[in-house]
Amino acid sequence: xxxxxxxxxxxxxxxxxxxxxxxxxxxxxxxxxxxxxxxxxxxxxxxxxxxxxxxxxxxxxxxxxxxxxxxxxxxxxxxxxxxxxxxxxxxxxxxxxxxxxxxxxxxxxxxxxxxxxxxxxxxxxxxxxxxxxxxxxxxxxxxxxxxxxxxxxxxxxxxxxxxxxxxxxxxxxxxxxxxxxxxxxxxxxxxxxxxxxxxxxxxxxxxxxxxxxxxxxxxxxxxxxxxxxxxxxxxxxxxxxxxxxxxxxxxxxxxxxxxxxxxxxxxxxxxxxxxxxxxxxxxx
Length: 284
Description:
Layout: E1 12-16, H1 21-32, E2 36-41, H2 44-56, E3 62-65, H3 71-85, E4 90-92, H4 108-126, E5 130-135, E6 138-144, H5 164-169, H6 173-176, H7 185-194, H8 200-208, H9 216-229, H10 234-245
Parallel strand pairs: 1-2, 1-4, 2-3
Antiparallel strand pairs: 5-6
Helix pairs in contact: 3-4, 7-8, 7-9, 9-10
């Protein structure tokens, strides 16, 4: 049996501007797909009418009168949904407004009102304080917002892993790429070794790209071992990595070999033995 690609059973969805038109239609569609749907609008009468229309179809829509241009009102309304359902899985920022006046002919008040709803209203609705990623009922990770949506100076965070596809095509970007200053210390130390030699940037990219196929900690461990051994080369790191993955000892026991080999029976240069072959018929 094929799974329904639009199965929203048990999900929680939010639709702004959901009292009429596209918003109302989307809310009903998601509710029919199994979602718990909450609609927002600034028209209380429209919200009530939308709920009644949905009820005739056997659908129970949640509703709240919310002005999406008011960040505080949006925060409170989002908190109410979280308190009731525990989360929001999907949001359709449909609310919008227009003024029947050409843009260049608008006064400042009208222009700011349109932007407050059509632009900032989307930001307030879809720009969460945190993102929680869950699968099969288990929370995998949680990320709090770094940038300040109040337009105050935030913090720029680079993740060098996201730029591997770029440096694979353009290895030279390693030399001046800001994201790669955030790499673990062992990677940066290896980079300082490899970039001294021709082709070192390509080798460094190849080593970094190993994290796309293997556990990053295993790659990092292989690099650290290579640095400790004083052999920071791509070949040696690959060898160490495969030993770690295969469960072999990365530091095999040392073999004490003699500094020089001694022959117990010295070879003799006896060319006379070849003279006996003269005159004999050799058949192939």
